[in-house]
Amino acid sequence: MDSIVITGGNRLNGTIPISGAKNAALPLMIASMLTAETVTLENLPDLADVESLVRILTNHGVDFQVEGKRKGQAGQMGRVVKFTAGEIADTTAPYELVSKMRASFWVLGPLLARCHEGRVSLPGGCAIGTRPVDLFLDSLRALGAKIEVENGYVVASAEGGLIGTHFKFPKVSVGATHVAMMAATLAKGQTVLENTAREPEVVDLAKCLNAMGAKISGAGTSTITIDGVEKLHGCRHRVLPDRIETGTYAIAVAMTGGDILLKGAQPDLLQEALDTLVRAGVTVEPTNEGIRVSRNGTDLIATDMETQPFPGFPTDLQAQFMALMTMAKGTSHIKETIFENRFMHVQELARLGAKISLDGQDATVEGVSELTGAPVMATDLRASVSLVIAGLVAKGTTTVNRVYHLDRGFERLEEKLSNCGATISRVSE
Ligand code: EPZ
């Protein structure tokens, strides 16, 4: 299994191109199942999660074709990929595929909308929390679907098609918002969804669906209205830049010191995280090309943070921010409010010398003056990258094992960091 080996101590200077967002790409790819015509996605990141979803979509009969390849150089356009679901060949999403990546459960929305039936495996356990699917099922039931859970599968049908409804989510969920929105595009009549997720990825999906002929308004607010249409058609859509990748590299340069241009990044996608970095003593400057982040000589200031749904501080940057706070002057308090078990990085950061204590959903981080390299591993994507960030400043060598987690969500991580001066490489065993 591959590992990433880092020798800490180098400052980061230069330019890092920001890739298309994984968490936008996945629902956009799934949305292609809603039409028999071709949906062309520009700037599609080359990631293990994208590949996993391609396998699922292929199983349903979706054709996949790469129009142009992103090769090598920084700043080049991302891949352009065509998805064509001429016919849905199979309405079952099997356990072997769905259990590998949770978001593949979301195919249930398009299957019900277009084929009026779907049999999708429950996604199963997850390292960061229990992550139930009740909100998905309740919203689809409200749209008229009959749903049973049998032998680990959600078996859903909507004879004659889905029907517009008024549904208020009892809790904000990104995935359930994506799915209900996709399902409602082909429902009869109007659907009003309340307490919807306001994440930029929801807005991006709505834009793409509207380009496919859907009638969606209000995406990005807490109420989304969808007027059902008979049919959707193909479109060409550019995946928005990855705000979590942006925040991760912003935190990396905050950690090491130096000056980085995050090319193609959009500040409005992560304003709260950028404001938190400014409070922590980091210089953040929006430019015409992206976002410039620097820290030169100033100390990191211990800064409290609490994760929240968008526009709050994203849970997907919590681990990285905690890594940063391990080297800040003073004590910071970090609260995770979205997932109940998203502190798997704490024990690993401790192996590098961090001082963190946990009390339920609250972490207290006491800044130290130095981290020291060690072998570490993590059980999820964002936790793994927080260890990379810590490794960039830790004295000596840090080896991050279980690299497949990083490959799920970070495109060419070692290349992007080493181009800016980091001593980082991948070692295959
Ligand atoms: C999306 O997951 C992201 N994944 C996650 O990113 C991200 O952490 C999360 O949103 C929150 O921002 C993708 O976009 C592919 P949720 P999702 O439903 O949609 C509870 C990463 O590292 N809930 O908004 O699965 C749930 O347990 C990943 O890239 C229910 O209770 O998250 C959680 O506590 C990790 N019932 C909360 O809602 C449900 O039916 C928010 O989860 C659904 C969710």
Uncertain segments are none
Radius of gyration: 21 Å
Q: What is the CATH class designation of the largest domain?
A: Alpha Beta
Alpha carbon gap, first and last residue = 6 Å
What is the structural class?
Answer: alpha/beta
User: What proportion of the residues is helical, as a percent range?
Assistant: 25-40%
Strand order of the largest sheet: 22-23-1-24
Task: Profile the largest sheet.
Answer: 4 strands, mixed
Number of helices: 14
| Number of separate structural domains | 2
Molecules bound to protein: ligand EPZ
CATH homology-level superfamily of the largest domain = Enolpyruvate transferase domain
Overall mean pLDDT stands at 95
Give the overall shape, derived from the CA principal axes.
elongated
CATH topology-level fold name of the largest domain = UDP-n-acetylglucosamine1-carboxyvinyl-transferase, Chain
- Strand composition percent: 25-35%
- Give the beta-strand count: 24
CATH architecture of the largest domain: Alpha-beta prism
